[in-house]
Amino acid sequence: YAPRAANRLLKEGIVLQTAARQFDANTGNGRVTFDYGTIVVSMGIQDPSNFAKIHALMDQIASEDAVDVYELTTGLSPAGIDLGSRNFNLLRKPEVMIVGGAGVSPNDVGEVWHLLDQRYDMELSIVEIPRFNSISLDKYNTIIMVNGNYNGLSSSGVDKLRRWVADGGTLILNRGAVNWANRNGLVNVTYRSSDDSESDESGSSEMGAGSLARYIDIQSERGAQVIGGSIFRVNVDVTHPLFYGYRRAEMSVFRNTNTMLEPPSNAYAMPMQYDLDSPLMSGYISDANLDRIKGTAGIIVGGIGSGKVIMMTDNPQFRAFWFG
Predict the structure, then answer these.
(1) From the CB of residue 12, how many other CB atoms can be counted at a distance below 10 Å?
(2) What's the pLDDT score for residue 223?
(3) Is the dihedral of CA 99, 237, 253, 283 positive or negative?
(4) What is the value of pTM for the model shown?
(5) What is the pLDDT of residue 225?
(6) H helical segments located in the chain
(7) 117 and 163 in contact (C-beta within 8 Å)?
């Protein structure tokens, strides 16, 4: 619940910084080592009228959000960066829109809404595609597009979205939204293709060309190529802002799609990658798809102007499968 804890403070106008480097600090509990992504509330940069509110919120965070709160005795660190370092970055309060409506998966929209609204207490707007074409995006700094085709988005709506990202917005794309953005020139990614004898999402027989196949077997052969819901091993960069708060470089992810992205030419743009040797942890995947998925990109981060586009091949909110 660290995101909920941060959101409590941001909603009250409290200035938050996050550490881009590790550091040690002297606290009331002695010397403590703090990791990448540690959130710091420096009292010297706060409005003095908020001091009592900050202490009350910290008590609430410690009791309700399962977050450890430490009081530092000095801004000088015995090791690592000091609190005045330029490696502390300001956090901005998320102003979030989810694009919904015809052509967009209602389950995926609901899962994002549940995570942000119910768990993290973040206010957000669900805007259907026809309205998206006509409204101003100025009040939002984050737009989420889940699995869907978004064919109802007009060319002027696509241009408006591109300008919004270029002006500093963050666009988060899940699954089919990545493909839509790729077709419309918002991003540039390469999909890992299957062999000629296979298809991507529907799957087909692994038999070689020229083999005689029974028509009655076509459904089961195609079904064997579908990834219906399995758990995979990925490797992540814990120094990347998307993974602040994680301490292990290995994670488990849930996947129910055959869409696979090639690693980008810029290795720093891929903070999550499917394991190169043994990605399958639990569940079924065909031998052909197991070979295909090795080393593919789980997350790619791109940019347009001053903004960022975060592309995920999977749906990390699926049925609230992972609590975190």
Answers:
(1) 13
(2) 67
(3) positive
(4) 0.88
(5) 73
(6) 2-11, 51-64, 106-113, 129-132, 155-166, 176-183, 218-223, 287-293
(7) no
